[in-house]
Amino acid sequence: MADLSSVSTLETLISEIAGKSESAAVKADIAIAGTAVSLLAQTLVPRLDPALDLAFVDAALTKVFAGLADLKAALASTAAPSAAPAETDPATPAPTA
């Protein structure tokens, strides 16, 4: 049984979120958990619903997890919000047009 691509994509997403704080032990745990989830899904899903196309579900989940990774990257690259507009002194009259 080959690993599901969705599980690999999820492992990558988790690793990206963990960033530099992720140790070798955590990486190994993520890989073990990914293998376990992949084996369980490949074994149980066809038995739960034989009509379910596991390859289709795997491809869809891969797109979801890749989209989440793209969203994380987009949010990280967004510039800091601009400073709030300066408040005007209430004693100063507002400009007229």
| Unreliable segments of 5+ consecutive residues | none
> Quick one: overall form?
elongated
What's the order of the H and E elements?
HHH
| Average pLDDT rating | 77
Percentage of β-strand residues: under 5%
In total, the number of domains comes to 1
Largest sheet: none
Question: Which structural class is indicated by helix and strand composition?
Answer: mainly alpha
Summarize the structure.
The chain has 97 residues and is mainly alpha-helical. Helix content is 65%, strand content 0%.
Account of the 3D structure:
The chain is mostly helical. The chain has one domain. The protein is built from three helices and no strands. The longest helix has 25 residues, at 24-48. The protein is elongated. It starts with a helix and ends in a 20-residue tail after the last helix.
